[in-house]
Each structure stands twice: as C-alpha cells, then as structure tokens.
Amino acid sequence: MTKILIFILITFNFLACAQETIRLEKPKVDERIELLSIVFRLAEKQDYSNKDFKLYVDRIEQYFEKNKNHELIQFTKSIINENGIAFDGPMWLAINLDDNLNLLKDVKDVWQLDPRWTKESVEKFVPLLQKFYKDTYFDKFFKNNADIYDEAVKRFNPIYEQVDLNWCFSFFGKEPTEIFLIKIGFGINFYGVNLDYTNGNRKVYAIMGLVGKFDNAGFPEYSIMYDLPLVIHEFNHPFIDKLTEKNKELFRESGEKISSGAITEAYSSWEVVLDETLVHASMIKYMKDHDFDQSEIEMWINLIKRTYGFFWIEELVEELENYDKQRDKYPTLESYMPKLAEAYKNWAENMQ
Predict the structure, then answer these.
(1) Which of 15, 58, 111, 161 has its CA 20 to 30 A from that of 22?
(2) 291-320: per-residue pLDDT in tens?
(3) pTM of the model as a whole
C-alpha cells in the first residue's frame, strides 16, 4: 500500500510540474498584430483584405480612409511586390516588436526567421510604422474598438479551455519549455509563428483569424469543430518545422514529386508543402485522439484535399498512427522521420 501511495504522489507531482511548465496564455487581441494587419489591408494585400467582418471593416475603412496614401502604405506596397511579403510575413515582424514598436533586442532577427524580410527593408519599415502609428493616432482607434475585441475574446474562451497542450508534448516526444499564446485576428488567415530568444527561450503564437461565420449582430462565431483544430494546427508548427528542415534531404526526391501539384503562392516549395501536410496530419491525429466525430474528421480531410491538394493526407495520418503504436521503439517523432521518408518514397512511386 505504501509503494502504491508513493507512486501516486510521484505521478501527481510530475503532472503538477508539467502543468506549470506548459504555459498557455489566455486569448488576447494584440495591438501589434492588429496594426500590421491593417497596414497590409490598406496596402491592398489580398490575404489581409477579407471583408466578412463588416462591422469591424467598416470602422477600419472609415477611420483610415485619409491614410491610404501614407508613405508607410506606399513602401509596404513596394516590398509586397519586390519581396513577396504576404501571408504570415507581416506576423513575423509584428511579434518581433515591443510595445513601443521598436525591434526586440534579445531575439533572433526577423530576417533570419523569414527571408522575405531583409535587414534593409525592416530598418526602413519600422520607423515608418512608428510614424504611421502617431500620424493616425492608432492607439485611439485600438481603444475605441475595445468592445469588439473584448467580445471576440469572450466568444473564443470556450475554445481556449479545450486546448490540450499535453497531447502535443506527449505526441512529439518533446519536453515542454515554451510559452504558448493565442492572439485573435480579424480579416486575416490563421498563422503559426514563434519568437526565439537568444537565451534559448521561445514564445509560440497561434494567430487565429475568422472562418466566415457571424451571428445576426455581425459578431464572429467560433466553434470547437473548426477553431480548436486550427489552434492545434498552429501550435504543431514549432514542433514540426524544425523536423522537416532537419530531415529535408531524406524527402527531397519523393517530396518534389508528390508535392508538385500542391505548390501555390502560399505553399511556394515542396519543403513548405511537406511541412504543412505533416502539420495537417498531426491535427487530424489530435482530433482522432480526442474523440471528434468521424463526420467532422472526414470533413477536415476532404477540406484539406480539396483546398490544398494534399491527396496523401489519409496515408500520412495512418503513418502517424503507426508511429504512435510503436513509441517504445520510436520515442519521438524525430526518431520516426526515416520511416516516414520510406513511406513518402512508396507514395511517390505509386502516384498516378
């Protein structure tokens, strides 16, 4: 009886320590993220120009109408055209700024993490951003829209409460050290970005856009079926991104072949397709392990195939299930990457 009690106490203490280490901050609307989103909206970047949230978009257009030709907006248009800054690019810069919109000094340079930004473009963009912030009294706009931000966060909290980060650490076989943050975005897509400090610490961001569902009052609606998988998708990125980068030579030949039909502006290379497919497959595995309805899982699989062209997603999910059944032999997903590379070779050879 004493041994059993000791075992229970040890287990309880381990879980308590794990919960302290796994730090998931409550959802917030981040002023830096909203500022960059609006700047790229004013620069007419398509992936930042969603108008579904009419209540909020009308406020943006009314407030910033006279600032559409601001020198920051003109410069932003030029780097969009020249450097291809789009999708998660603005978000990488947003999280690398402090509250005064100065570049953080104790983190890796943003141009090291996202080559679409250069040292020169960042050093010109940031002072212009600070000027835009002052010229437009952006702090006033942000405060005046607190009602929308607070309501969105309130509606997203039930999703936040269902996030199981312990699954991520268990499934990928990685000790928890990061801080995880959920940021609510408007009129943008869903992005996973991370802030790497020079001392080795890391903050992982899930930036949650809107899926186009609104109530009669015009406010966004969130759901476990859609939004929880997307949070997990974005939180999977920091676990998977380094794995695919580290092992890309194992996948080069098969990855180039199998990904050829899925390369788009958003997924611009076979490496990005490889990475995104594994992130999607891990999200489906999470859904299976958390008893989502089979109809919901099938809906996501079909959506992934139809939207991204990842026709091998089901086989990849099965491969992840094979990995999870052999954790005594493969304690981490990293240790399973050679087996995954073999599977990719077979799929590439059998492509029609």
Answers:
(1) 111
(2) 999 999 999 999 999 999 999 999 999 999
(3) 0.87
The two tokens of residue 52 are 């579904």
Residue-range domain boundaries for the chain: 25-211, 247-347
pLDDT bracket for residue 6 (50, 70, 90): very low
Q: Hey, which bits of the chain come out as E strands? A: 23-24, 179-184, 191-196, 202-208
- Would you call 314 helix, strand, or coil by DSSP? helix
